[in-house]
What we know:
The protein is mainly α. The chain has helices at residues 2-25, 45-57, 60-86, 93-97, 101-128, 136-158, 164-203; strands spanning 29-32, 35-38.
Amino acid sequence: MLYNYFAIRLLSFCHIFLISISNILVQYPFELLGYHTTWGAFTYPAIFILTDLTTRLADAQTARKIIFRSMLPGLVLSYLIASSIEVNDSFSWTTLSTIHVMPLRIACACFIAYALGQLLDIFVFQRYRNNSSWWLAPALSTTAGNLIDTLLFFSIAFYHCSNPFLSQHWPEIAVVDILFKIVLSLLAFVPIYGLVLSLFRRKGHFKVLTH
């Protein structure tokens, strides 16, 4: 029981950490082969593989529990991080007492996109989890989750926003981010999923997170 509780807390912390670091990196665009994208595309896809591993090794209910535990802290941290960046990385109590519209949009966008993207990931994974090909469920679920998550996040956060660059280029950045996340997930994170799953199978550990 204690181990299960610790595992859920640890996974929730990993989700919150990845949300936070990705929300920092997403605000620093760069050019990749002539197209605009963000550094957040390197880190955020890992959340979907964590969810897929949780769903496989435990169950969908446990995966959803971790998502719900991570949503509110992710929202608060997203707002605080975005507010700090908006005031040139100078965080203070004055920052807390002032409503920052752009950071609030980013935080709300993250909250909505994370929740719907993760729940879609679990739904798709459950649909294909019994397929004989181990890679099919995580490949399809992470693709679907990244697609809806990225489109929701960029459209809610940056459509007609106060940042001229992001307001103009968010559709291009979103499309490039989606493609990059999918390629990175299929070439790196899905194989990592397979490796971790294989290690658990060899040791005979199943349902390791459920109560």
